[in-house]
Specification:
The complex is a heterodimer. Helices cover 37% and strands 16% of the residues of chain A. By secondary structure, chain A is an alpha/beta fold. In chain A, the strands form three sheets. A five-stranded parallel beta sheet of chain A has the order 5-4-3-10-9. A three-stranded parallel beta sheet of chain A has the order 6-7-8. In chain A, α2 (33-43) runs parallel beside α9 (224-244), α3 (86-100) packs parallel to α4 (120-132) and α5 (145-153) runs parallel beside α6 (175-184). The mean pLDDT of chain A is 94. Chain B has a single domain (8-69), classed as Beta-grasp domain (Ubiquitin-like (UB roll)), CATH 3.10.20. Chain B contains one helix and five strands, in the order ββαβββ. In chain B, strands 2-1-5-3-4 form a five-stranded mixed beta sheet, with helices on one face. In chain B, β3 (41-44) and β4 (47-49) form a beta hairpin. The chains are: A alpha/beta, B mainly beta. At the A-B interface, β4 and α3 of A face β3 and β5 of B. Chain B: It comes from Novosphingobium indicum. Chain B: This is Thiamine biosynthesis protein ThiS. Chain B: InterPro entries: Beta-grasp_dom_sf, Mopterin_synth/thiamin_S_b, Thi_S, ThiS/MoaD-like.
């Protein structure tokens, strides 16, 4: 399949780094590293999120993610998943920077385990510290246009509102607030969390988001590779639809065939 | 527990008790665990230990180390 020239030129830039794919995928919950790597390939993603965890010192020869997904070819975006305080998130990302050698990171500070909703007070605190330390934080946040502005002021290089709770697959619950965030932002906006199927990703893109980040929707599909491809296509379709400018809606029907010349 | 043997340091590495010969550096520890220093990051007593300095920092008895790497995540 060949892209149109316009589609090929449609890139996005975060913290000075330019990407063609608007789909960021996670690397959790896969059956094995092989399936994970194949799904990344099928998704066309140029960025993957990764977590930072203790090395298993009892089994140091266990296969590592970096053996399957090459950090030189795919941008690793270290996250702070599992962190419930600003201090934990900052500590995790300092280690991530040392492990990877790059400063583009995903900040998420969670408020509670049941909903995995972001704790915005701690998130803002961490964002400020990280930006001062030279990090480029892409920030998981509530779908609140005011919080989004505050994050931008605190140094966020991308705003990443949830569409629905992490791992829920419920789709974009509040299209109005996501649109308001997009309209108000001077940095890229990506829906992060809540996408369940291809149409959800298209909705996010049609709202004008710069990209979509997902993990479970692909990893827990019955056929993750096929879903990865579906997501790639839906993100492209949604982006094209947004750029094309959709028709206005009408309350009643409007025929597509001419009325003149009817027999 | 046996009393402290001279010439050996007791460390806490990723929450586990480990022993290493006195005078060892962080790089010695990482290698003794069979890890590639290029693929991990080390926190030494709650401070980041830059990779370039791992061979220069001597360990002391009671040191607490965290050795992390990237794993799958969302």
């Amino acid at each position: 399949m060949t892209d149109t020239p316009a589609a090929t030129a449609d890139t996005w830039t975060v913290a000075g780094r330019t990407f063609t794919s608007r789909l960021i995928v996670g690397t959790g919950k896969y059956k094995d590293f092989e399936q994970n790597a194949a799904a990344v390939e099928a998704s066309g993603a140029e960025i993957v999120t990764v977590a930072v965890r203790r090395v298993n010192i009892s089994d140091p020869k266990a296969p590592m993610l970096t053996d399957f997904i090459d950090p030189k070819k795919i941008t690793y975006l270290p996250n702070t998943a599992g962190c419930f305080t600003a201090d934990d998130a900052i500590r995790t990302l300092r280690l991530a920077r040392e492990a990877g050698g790059w400063d583009l990171v995903k900040l998420e500070v969670l408020g509670e385990a049941r909903t995995l909703y972001p704790d915005m007070r701690e998130t803002l605190k961490a964002c400020e510290v990280l930006a001062k330390e030279g990090f480029a934080p892409m920030v998981y946040c509530v779908d609140d246009p005011i919080a989004a502005k505050q994050l931008e002021e605190a140094g966020a290089v991308a705003i990443m509102p949830l569409g629905a709770p992490i791992g829920s697959g419920l789709g974009i619950q509040n299209k109005v607030t996501v649109r308001l965030i997009v309209e108000g932002a001077n940095v890229p906006v990506l829906v992060d969390a809540g996408v369940g199927t291809a149409s959800d990703a298209a909705v996010a893109m049609e709202l004008g988001c710069d990209g979509v980040l997902m993990n479970t929707a692909i990893a827990e599909a019955k056929d993750p590779l096929r879903m990865a491809r579906a997501m790639k296509l839906s993100v492209q379709a949604g982006r094209d639809a947004y750029l094309a400018g959709r028709m206005a809606t009408r309350r009643y029907a409007d025929p597509s065939s001419p009325l003149a010349g009817l027999i | 527990m046996a009393p402290e043997t001279s010439g050996e340091l007791k460390l806490t590495v990723n929450g586990e008790m480990r022993r290493i010969a006195a005078g060892a550096t962080i790089a010695d520890l990482v290698e003794s665990l069979g890890l590639n220093p290029q693929k991990v990051a080390v926190e030494h007593n709650a401070e980041i230990a830059p990779r370039s300095t791992l061979a220069d920092v001597a360990l002391a008895d009671g040191d607490v180390l965290e050795i992390v790497h990237f794993v799958g995540g969302g």
